[in-house]
Give the backbone structure.
Amino acid sequence: MSKKLFRYAEENRERFLDSDDITFSDGSVVTPAEVWGYLTEEAPARYPHAFEINLNQGSRAIRDETFPTLLKTQYLALTLSERMEKARDNGRSIAFIQGGQTIDPYTAADTIALRPANVGNWNNGRYHGKNINQNARIRKEKKEKSYHDMTFEACQTAGYEHIQTGDLRVDIIAPYTTLRCSDISYGVEAHRHGPNKNVKLFNVDFPLRNQADKPWAVEYFANSLRKLIKLLDESTGRTTTEEDLLKAIKLHNEGRRLSIELTDLWWSASVPPTNGDDRQTLSSLGHLEYGDSQAALSVLKEAKKFLAERVENGVKGPGVRDNPKRLFVLGSCVWVNNARSEIDGAIVVGKDDGWSTVNALVDEEGDPFQNLARATLQYPYEQGIEERARWTIEQIKRSRADGVIFIHRWGCNTQASISRAVVDVIKRETGIPTYIHESEFGLQHEQEHNRVSAFIEML
Ligand code: SF4
């Protein structure tokens, strides 16, 4: 059965062509005309699933096509697979990291750092001409194989199978072992026993439980960062210096600052200036990922101008209802079906995951290893339950949320075990309605959204 595909409207073309180029780390430039051509001709043929209107799977009919930044982030996401293949052909080194960390040391060591979601995106991009269900099935089959080859007790978000089968040319698996994620450090160990012995492995050991202010912990983590960079250098054959790390910290601080400004601006608006998907895209741009930090920064730099216009003119994001109930979502690697939630009369205004690390500004004076270690150990999401909950309450208040949903994935053991305690503190301190549910990573399940719908109805 042929599916209805979304198409960008020609009437928005001229405004888009007026926006800035995307500048990549290697100095190459892609013009808005090239991005427009890709999104309207090449990409719908190559990746029809990304243009399919299917609300049950979170693919919305209304895209925010008058906001040029959002088309550019879609361009960066859809070209990631091809760009990673080219990067490897050109001898670039690629590291697999975890979702709850920043990437400054990898940038310093000229290594592309990919979170699990980006590793999955790289793999999915190798399949062309698939509709949304076929695409979902490919992901599901990979995951089932990982359950079989590794363990069914891990979430299997982390791309074990792609790397072990040699489908993706990852050089090194070197995540921080932050508490957030129980899969990734377990996954590093699992790779030691898999058939692919070529990939280098390293856990950047993260001292847990209220260690952030302790000098030994800062020194210990700074040393782990030095070891990480040494190992990355073995793959690239270069020698990364303190100056390189400071330069990377400055680059990423710029991204983090811009992202914080964007989020503050979004939260200050009298009506939601974008829909929930787009708010999340703008907020997380500050991680400077998409496999190219410079490209992400060049897109992020012009975003504030477009958002400020909307906020000033009181423009509401497409698809958002009048006076929607504001939801704050907690948990690792989770989301709700934003399109369906908006039809139900709500909007997601914030998430703790990701936002925690965007806020980790690093001091630019003094030893960059120690400064990065100190900022990393202070990730709010990684603190003890009470402290994490207190930080979350601040974000809930700043975003004026009416309700809180904590979601934990199957196999995401830390989040599953602390969700009740975190939510209890929030409920006790704020009195706003909360609820918790478990879900499986991957598809947007109808039953899962029915529960979100019921919560929105209650709000
Ligand atoms: S769902 Fe949890 S265990 Fe899985 S990758 Fe995300 S944080 Fe890690």
Summary: The two ends are 38 Å apart (CA to CA). The first strand starts at residue 22 and ends at 23. Residues 10-458 form one domain.
